[in-house]
Here is the input.
Amino acid sequence: MADHSRSPETLLPLPAATFHILMALAEEERHGYAVIQDVEARTRGALRLSAGTVYRSIQRMLEQGLIVESDERPAPELDDERRRYYRITPFGADVARAEAARLSELIRLARARGLAPGRA
Amino acid sequence: MRLHSILHRALLRLYPASFRAEYGDELSRIFAQRRRDASGVFDLLWLWPLEVADVVGNAAAVHWDLLRQDVRYGLRALRRAPGFALSVVLVVGIGVGATTSAFTIADHVLVRPLPFHEPDRLVKLWESPPGYSQMELSPPNYLDWKERARSFEGMAAYSPFSTNLVGQGEPRRLEGVVTSSELLEVLGVSPALGRSFAPEDDDVGAARTVILGFALWQDAFGGDAGVVGRTVLLDGEPHTVLGVMPRGFRFPSREVEYWSALRLDGDTSENASDRDNNWFNVVARLAPGVSLEAAREEMQAIAAQLEREHPVENASTGANVVALQDEVSAQSRLLLLVLAAAAACVLLLACTNLAGVLLARALQRRSELAVRAALGGGRERLVRQLLTESLMLAGAGGAVGVAIAGWAIPSLHRLVPQALPVAELPAIDARVLGLAALVTIATGLGFGVLPAVRAARGSVQGALRDGSRGGVGGRRERLRAALVAFQVGASVALLMTSGLLLRALVRVQSTDPGFETERIVGLRTWLPSPKYDATASRVQFYDRVIEEVRALPGVVEAGYVSFLPMVMGGGIWPVTIEGRPVDAEAPERAALRFATTGYFDAIGIPLLLGRGPQPSDGAESPRAAVVSESFARRYWPDADPIGRRFDLAFQERTVVGVVGDVRTRGLERVAEPQVYLPPAQVPDGGLPFYAPKDLVVRASTDPMALVPAIREIVRAVDPEQPVSDIRPLEDLLAENTAPRRLQASVLGAFAAIALLLATLGLHGLLSLAVSQRRQEIGVRVALGARRADVLAMVAREGALLVLTGMVLGVAGGLVAGRSMRALLAGVATADAAALASSIAIALVISLAGSLLPALRATRVDAAVTIREGS
Here is the structure.
C-alpha cells in the first residue's frame, strides 16, 4: 500500500506519538509494550503512551510504510512469541530524520529570539 | 482477574472488528501487564477510567481513519466506473426529487392544517338552493342562521370586495374583503399591530374601519407602525386603520390585501334585506365537542324552519356545512393525488432500476470483492466499504434530488389553488425528503451491500476461478429480469395515463369559449362608490373612455362589461319569464352582466339576432336586454325571441337581441344562460357590484402596445382612477387550462423518465447477459449459427420481458385511468389511441434497449471467445 516514491516531507509534521515510536524502533525491533516502556524511560516518565494510541499509530504507520512487521524473531531467550515485533523501514528513518531536522530548525529560530536555551 | 479481562474484551468491541482482530490480543496483554504493575488498590482503580478514555478516544479515531480510507477507496472505485456512478446518482436524484416535489405540493394543499387556531374546528356554511350544493348566503338568512344555531362558538360573514386606494402613491386597486366584526375571532388570529374589529364597528352608522394585510402595509405604507389610527382613502371614503395583520395571514385567499368592517347591523338597504341576494361567505367555528355531522344536521333543521317561514325566497333551500380544510375543489384534489401517485411510481421505478444496476455491479465486482476478502480484509471491512460507497452514492443522489425539488416546486405553484388561505409556495418538506432518501438508501443497501456480501462470503476460490466471467446466479438474473419487466410495466402505465390527460387537455383546449382572444386585451377600471354611485356619472366615464380609445390608431373596437368571462363565473340571478309558471324546485336562473356598445364586437361574441346595446338605451327608454342563444332557445324554442319580456333584477326587460353563448365559468363547464343589460338602465347606486369595470380592446396589431395610451386616456378622464388586471385575453384562456397543462406535462415528464429508466434497465440486463454468454454465443457461431439467429436470440429475450411488462402496464394503466375519470373531460378511459401509442412506444423501448447488446452479440468472434474460455 505504501508509496515509497513520496518525499518524507509530505508526512511532516509528525504526530508526537509517531515520532516517539520511530525513535523507539530506530534502536531495535520492539513489540508494542516495549515501545511504551522505551518512550517512558527515554522521557523519564514524562510521556506515557497509552496502548490504544500506540496501536492506532502503528496501524497508520504500517499503511504509510514507516514501519513493517518483523519476521525475524529476537534471540529465543528474549522472545515472547505471541507478540508482534515492528521494525523501522528506510523510508521511516528518512521521515524521522526529516522531522528531527524540522524540529532543530525550529529550535534554531526560537533561540535567535531568545526563546530557547543555547546560542543561535 | 477473569472479570477484568472479560470487561476489557467487551470494552475493546468499540474498535472496528478488523482493528480488534489485528491488535486486540496485544491490547489485552498490555492491560493485563498494567494491572500486574499496579501498586496498590488506588492505582488499580485508577487504571479503569484511564483505559476507558483511551479506548473510546482511539476507537473513534480508528473509525474515522477507516471512513476516510473507505471514502478514498470508494471515490477511486466510482471514478473507475463513472457510468455506473452517474446513473445511480441520477436515478436516485430523479426519484427523490420527483417524489419530494409532488408530495410537498400535495401535502401543502391537501394535508397540512390551515394556519389558524385549531383549524379542524373551522367550517364554512353554505345555502343549497335547487341545483347548487354550495351557494353564498343572503344577509337575512345569515342573520337568522347565526341567531338560531347552537353548534358554533362563533360565526362570521364576509364577501370579497375590492377598492381603489388613493393618496398612497399611484392610485391602486386593492383586493380585500368586507367582513362582520367576528371574523378574526372566529379564525383565532389577532392583528400584529393595533386592534381587531369590535362589535360597534359593525353598526351601519359606525366610522369605516380597515385592517391592513402585512404585504400592503409594507408596500403602500413602508411598514410604518404609526399607520394605526390614521385615515386612508378607500374608494374615496375615509377609513380608520385599526391594525395590521401578521405576515403570513391570508384569508379567505392569498390575494386579499385588507379587511374592512361590513357595517351590517341596522342596515335596511335592498342589499342587506333581500333574501334572494346571496353574497355572504360564512365561516364558523364549531363549539367544542360538536361534530361536523351534528352541525350539518342542526343547520338543515334551521334551513327547513326558514323555508316554512319564507316559502317563496327560501323554496327548497337547504344548508351545507363543510370543513374549511376541504374547501379544495374535488378536481384540484384529484389532480394532486394523480401527481402524487405518479411520483410514487417514479420513486418505485427509480428504486427498481437502482436495484438492477446495483445487482449487476455486485456481480461484476464479485471477483474484486473476493480478492479483498481473501487478502484478509474481513467481511466487516468489506461491508463497511460497500456501505460507505452506497451512502456516498445515496448522498450525492439525495443532493441532486434536493436540487431537482428546489427547481421543480416553484414551477408547480399553479397546482396550489388561488382560493386557499395558504402560502403560494410550500418550502421543501423535510419529512418527505427524509422519507424519499430513506427509501432509496434502503434500496441501495438492500441491493448493493447484501448481494455483494453474499457473493464474497460464498466460496472465495469459486469466485476467483470464475474470474472475469463472473458467476451468474440464475436466481439473481431472474430477479433482475423481473425488475426490468416491472419498469416496463410502470412506464407503460404512466404513458397511458399521461396520454389520457393529454387527450383530455386537447379536448378542453379545443372547446369553443364563445369569444375570441387574438389581439384583444382586457383592462380593469373599478369605479368606486360613492363617487360613481350616480349612473349618469359612470356612463359618462365609459362613454369618454370608449370614445377616446376607439380613436387610438390600431384600435378596432372597444367596450365595457361587468366581468370578463372566466374571471367571474357567478353573478347568477333568478329570472321570471312572462307566461311561464315558476317552478320552485328548479327556478330559472341567468348570469347577469352589463355591457356597453362595442363590447360584443370587441370580444368577438357573435350577434345572432336583433341588435346589441346602443347609446339610445338610456335611463328613460324601455328596459332592453340582450340574451344569449341558450336563453332564447330555452324559453322561446319555437318563436322569435325579439320583443319577449322577462323579469330580472327587480325590473321587467324586453329582449332586443340574441348573442352567442359564452363559457363564463371556464372551458370545462357549461355556464348558465347570459343576459346583458345596458349600463344606463340601472337606478343610481343600484347593483354596484355589476357596474361595468372590464374594458375590452380589440386591436389590429399587438394590443399590449396600446396599454400606455389607454392608461393615459383613463388618467385624463379621472386622475384618481387606477387601471388594474391588464392582460391579453389569450392569457385568460391559458390560465383557465394552466393546472391541466401543467399536470399533463408533469405526468408526461414522469412517463418520459420512466421510459428512460426502463430502457436503461433493459439495456443493462441484456448487455450483461450477452457478455456472460459470449462463450455460448461463440460456440453457436462456430456451430454455424447465422448472425440473424444470434440477433433473434437476444432480441427474443428482450421482447419477452417487454411483453410481460406491457401486459402488466396496460392493466395498471386501465385501473389508473378509471380512477381518474373525473379529470378526463369525457375522454374514454380505455382510449384506443392512448393504448396503441403506449404499446408502440413500449416496442420502441424494447428495440432501443436490445439493439446495442444484440449487435454486440452478433460481433462475437467464435475463435476468440472459445479460446478465452478454455
Q: What stands out?
A: Residues 498 and 748 of chain B are 5 Å apart (CA to CA).
